[in-house]
User: Which sequence fits this backbone?
């Protein structure tokens, strides 16, 4: 039986839904908005979060209100099929991936609701026990780049691990200083993004610098060109992928079999595609680690719960949301306890 078989035919009653807007002025140049989906039925509520990055799209969908015809008796699978035919956006979004992000919000809410109506937790349904989650803190180093913020976090939490966004302004001295901390698990090269504010052009000199400077770190999302491929050839076993992974087919089409991949639930859009990826990776001995999308609400707990069930010991980019802000005391340490609710697809 597949993972999806464990949940696809649960009874699901939907009577209506509501949308809730969340926002956070994360930086002076970044107002983060998300939308929480609240599905209601049979006296229960299921919750999911739309992590689309276009703030205006959240304004538009919240203004539309509850206009999708979602009421009825379903299963998670039939609800997913119905949802795939619905106009989740009034007009084509700027980024095609936003459709998956919004679909995931409704699908995760439907899974949560179906499990609550059945009186079961996700772990119980898929016969997996939740374990404490190892996490990394993901960040860039500013412009000009500096180790100041990394060191500020390490002063407070000496055992903290990091995933760092590389840039062409990194110098050998910076890399040497970072490597000396022994705290860097992953370097995000962001070479697979297209049409976003984080697009990073291929840079063979940068790739060589970080591959050699961080001898044990994962190298995520390099751009493969005639200039970069020879540089990366000796380090193929450390190359991993994120932005291009939306399905099992995407993993199969990677340029070489990976040792591990970033499994971001919202990138997959549907529960079926996500669970198929978990099955595929497990069957083939491919590792997985979780990734976040600046969730402001319940979506963060959901990705932490998935990590606790499927890959708790890998460098999961699912740190508590407070680690996205300025360093401060009193935050949870890694590994993070993720106690699930008695029913549904949420963490306490």
Assistant:
């Amino acid at each position: 039986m597949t993972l999806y078989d464990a949940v696809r035919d649960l009874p699901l009653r939907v009577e209506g839904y509501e949308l809730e807007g969340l926002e956070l002025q994360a930086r002076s140049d970044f107002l983060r908005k998300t939308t929480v989906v609240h599905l209601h039925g049979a006296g229960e509520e299921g919750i999911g979060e739309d992590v689309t990055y276009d703030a205006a799209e959240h304004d538009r969908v919240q203004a539309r209100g509850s206009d999708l015809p979602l009421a009825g008796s379903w299963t998670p699978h039939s609800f997913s099929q119905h949802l795939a035919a619905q106009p989740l956006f009034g007009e084509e979004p700027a980024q095609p991936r936003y459709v998956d992000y919004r679909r995931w919000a409704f699908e995760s809410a439907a899974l949560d609701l179906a499990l609550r109506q059945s009186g079961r937790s996700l772990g119980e349904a898929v016969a997996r026990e939740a374990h404490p989650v190892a996490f990394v803190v993901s960040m860039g180093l500013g412009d000009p780049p500096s180790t100041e913020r990394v060191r500020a976090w390490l002063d407070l939490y000496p055992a903290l691990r990091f995933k760092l966004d590389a840039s062409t302004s990194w110098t050998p001295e910076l890399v040497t200083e970072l490597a000396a901390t022994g705290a860097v698990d992953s370097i995000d090269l962001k070479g697979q993004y297209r049409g976003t504010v984080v697009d990073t052009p291929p840079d063979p000199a940068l790739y060589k610098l970080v591959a050699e400077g961080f001898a044990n770190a994962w190298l995520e999302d390099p751009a493969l060109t005639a200039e970069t491929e020879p540089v990366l050839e000796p380090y193929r076993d450390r190359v991993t992928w994120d932005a291009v992974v939306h399905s099992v087919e995407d993993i199969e089409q990677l340029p070489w079999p990976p040792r591990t991949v970033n499994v971001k639930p919202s990138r997959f859009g549907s529960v079926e595609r996500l669970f198929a990826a978990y099955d595929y990776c497990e069957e083939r001995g491919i590792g997985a680690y979780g990734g976040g999308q600046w969730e402001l609400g319940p979506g963060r707990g959901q990705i932490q719960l998935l990590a606790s069930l499927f890959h708790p010991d890998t460098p999961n980019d699912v740190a508590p949301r407070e680690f996205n802000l300025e360093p401060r005391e009193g935050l949870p340490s890694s590994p993070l306890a993720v106690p699930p609710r008695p029913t549904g697809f949420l963490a306490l």
